[in-house]
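Supplementary notes for students who missed Thursday's class. We covered one full example, reproduced here. Read the sequence, then the structure, then the short commentary at the end.
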Amino acid sequence: MCVFIRMVFSDLTAKEELLTVLAMKEHARGEEVFLSFKNFIEKTPLPVYNLVSVTTDGAPAMVGPVDGFIAKCREDDAFPDFLNYHCVIHQQALCAKILNMKEIMDVATKIACSIRARSLQRWLFGAHLEKADSDVRWLSRGKFLQIFRELYPEIKEFFCEAGHAEYVLLNDAQWLDLAFLTDLTNMLNDLNLELQGKDKTVINMISSVNAFKLKMKHHSSKLQRHDLANFQNLALELETQGKASVQLDGARYTEQIDNCLSEFDNRFQDFSLIEPVATFMCYPFREDADVDSLASKIATLFHLNCSGVENEILTLQADIELKSRPRGQVWNLLTEEKYPNMRKCAASFTALCGSTYLCESALSHMKIIKSKYRSTMTDEHLEVCLRLAVSSYCPDYASLADSSQCKSSK
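Structure (token representation):
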């Protein structure tokens, strides 16, 4: 199990680094995960009392209400009252599963698997692509439908020449649905890529998700008017089949988009309390801010005194000197004596992790490091190699060279 930590320093700068790699020798249930992590923090001078939030992949072992890792941490007196969130990227991927296009995906997957399952079949299809001067790569994770659409003429011709039964599936009128599904999954893929990356703050992620929802509502309204400017594959399929002979069922497609947006609203309810605070962090001097509501949300989120938060917000909004500073430099200029609650709010908010991207990318590195050719690698060796692979720290080679003693042979 990979554990990453987001540290916030006195100047409110943040650093994300690998904390530890815990080897789960037997079971990986919530209790075992907790005991392993508890053993680690007891041996390490880790100030766990400063913990603000924990972000997980949403697995039952992590978020189970009774025996999950989060539940065990809350029962332990060493842990403070922290926040916990399901990874934004995981939730975004789960939202895409609400699309009711299983029949189309089953057909496309069956055709792709029939080509890839047999070496000869795959080689013949590759030769067919070369003959057709096609420069599109055959299949790529995350872009399966788009590439399948681009290779549609070559696939159809290949099956027609070979006389395979899958050729019949390609003549189904539901390929218009495939074009729509391709456009929609491309939009979801773009959002997924936007959410990935190191040093992504919760503000960045909330903004990306909200922007996607606004775009989807706008695209849905245009689709109702049969404006396909944002659905290029759908427009191309209509043009190929002939607009006169094909009637676009816009209501069914807008229903799919509405269902997807509804799933986004349901899954991202955890961030409904954070969003007003995020807006305040970006625009602290808004005159139309509801101070009572904002102070209540901040106090609830980070366990602060509501009255003290209200007074500090009002004092902050009247501070002429802070108003003259660039927006990004406001929070690290607040003094502990004058703004203790706002300082804690800013530090805690900066410490929030929105996704488990770092853990997922670390596991990708681990697959390369711990291969079948390195079967004798120990847990300690693996952790050191993994830390070198994912760390952003750079050794001071000049200082290390100066500190070493040169020896001459005679």
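Commentary. Residues 134-141 have pLDDT under 50 and may be disordered. The CA atoms of residues 1 and 23 lie 6 Å apart. If anything here is unclear, bring it to office hours.
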